[in-house]
Amino acid sequence: MTNNDNKDKTLAQILRSRGISRRGFLKFCAATASMMAMSPAMIPKIAHALENARRPSVIWLSFQECTGCTESLTRAHTATVESLIFDAISLDYHHTLQAASGHAAEEARETAMKENYGEYLLVVDGSIPMGNPGYSTIAGISNYDMLMETAKGAAAIIAVGTCATYGGIPQAKPNPTGAVSVRDLIKDKPIINVPGCPPIPVVITGVLTHFLTFGTIPELDHLGRPKVFYGQSIHDRCYRRPFYDKGLFAETFDDEGAKKGWCLYKLGCKGPTTYNACATTKWNDGTSWPIEAGHPCLGCSEPDFWDGGGFYKALSMPTENITQTVIYTAAGAVAAGLMLGARNLSKKEQAKAAHSNTTIDDLKK
Ligand code: SF4
Ligand code: SF4
After folding, report:
1. Rounded to whole angstroms, how far apart are CA atoms 241 and 291?
2. What is the pTM of this model?
3. Measured in angstroms, how far is the CA atom of residue 249 from the centroid of ligand 2?
4. Which CATH number do you get for residue 47?
5. Hey, which of 232, 233, 235 would you mutate to test ligand 1's pocket, going by the most ligand atoms within 8 Å of its Cβ?
6. Domain assignment of residue 256, given as a range
């Protein structure tokens, strides 16, 4: 996996040697600017920075996880973005993707750490079991020891996925392994949290691209998440929101409301308290996303989503009020969402609407 031939080349040199045209490269820069909500004026700056960037070494450690985060990354939906990001970084160690095994694999990690001390990016997926060092080991080294050793020389750490970010499913009650997050253990390094179960692939590559372009970490929210991707709730950007505002809710997964695409709030949708980019980037090459497929948001990018009170139980906030304020407390932090205009229809009005073929197009009129 280590590609020393390319180590000292700039990204522009690597791309040229791979036959990528300047036009194709600028197209990528434009897509990146748009993905990161930057103005078009930033496109030449991104191009200049990326062209002159040397490939940073990236060490990826996987601890207590299901490999879903890596699966997600390898499905980054724009082929150009995916290939560019892999060309642009030197992924020197990754348990799942590397060809080397055994001693050779561990040597690759040690060499990358030594040669790039203070400059490499450390990506971590999975939580760290603190109950017993033997619960999860790699090459005989406990996850805790490997994290602490590798974090020492890292310029920054990207915690990918809800397990690395908050402890995730391994930390779900009763947390048999004593699972903790990266941020629980590392206090002296910049950490970018990219939660999601799994995280959205273009969000992972977007964070890497930001680091490559600016050499800094993006602006983060109170949970350490990049604001550009986690700044708005699912509910803020949900295409079913007009139904919520009109008080039109599916009551079961196969009733008339569900068939007409009404709001999934009463089926347990956690969109109002979940901050992620699914509603805008979507999944699978922008094909669809869970709510578009008819399933409520489970809140997978928020702390304790697994223990949070039932996937199919409606949030406890009332829908009757004209103006509502939702206070969501997680991990000692408060995320507040102000939702205006929510109105619940009476049973009679709902029954009338259910027979009226009200669809999203009707509500747009
Ligand atoms: S409650 Fe869920 S389905 Fe309804 S508008 Fe909000 S995010 Fe969309
Ligand atoms: S819709 Fe909600 S549960 Fe589904 S992937 Fe997005 S944030 Fe996670």
Report:
1. 11
2. 0.82
3. 19
4. 3.40.50.700
5. 235
6. 234-364
